[in-house]
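Repro:
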Amino acid sequence: MKIAVLDAGTLGADLDLSPLAAVGEVTTYPTTAPEQMGERLQGVQVAVVNKIKMNAETLREAEALRLICVAATGFDNIDTAYCRERGIAVCNVPAYSTESVAQLTVSMALSLVMHLTEYRNFVHSGAYSASGTANRLTPVYHELSTLTWGVVGGGGIGTRVAEMAGALGFRVVMCRRKPETRFDSADIDTLCKQADIVSLHVPLSDETRHLINAERLASMKGGAILINVARGAVTDEAAVAAAVENGKLGGLGVDVYSVEPFCEEHPFYRLLDRDNVCFTPHMAWGAAESRARCLAVIVDNITAFFGGGNQNRIV
């Protein structure tokens, strides 16, 4: 069996891919352009991908392909209808990155609540030494127990973030489809109005696209913090950028974007020099332990599929 890892560069140079060799003959590529897909998938039965789009255009010459393994939980880069039509199975890796994503979410929130960038820059720029004053207390910050954290999405990551936020002293309000008993619950519009921090943990779908839009941003508390570690298009990015620029949002933390990497024309590019903005390069999922766990499940998915099983099958 031939296995092609088509964008190994997105998995981290430190990740040992040798476990894949136990189930097939492995070829790895740092990245693969759409025009290279046909050649690289010739005779390949299993494609392992993270971000690459798999659709009619990129898969039309992949005659031997039987299985696509997504090195992620989300699979919006896969045209599942086309794969079903072609008889190509698709497997993902659920729940592997819960701790890693929750960790970044909370780190972003605490940094933005405490204005750490502003205070750090004041000292590191030499302004503190030149001030002649022993301390500085602006921008103003607040104790966590006085703040409400709104968690949008009650899956594994959202629930873990809610647990961490509660342990830190925040009042937690959760918006989720299923009934909620551990935390206060609210619909999305009520949550946006109540929360000092809103963090997003939902998959991208027709229902969640631009879930956070200009209207909901306008309804938020002045100075609220928004954190998106879900998918870029869950927010209207132009409206979010405008809310930062006009001061409606007091802080913004984002790890995911509608275009990755985003270009100079993207509305977020205008925000790069702002101290109350924290942009990270889609790395929330990627703790070393998380990536190793993901690879182990991919190996299990391949073994299960060729053994007649349906482990983590999407298609």
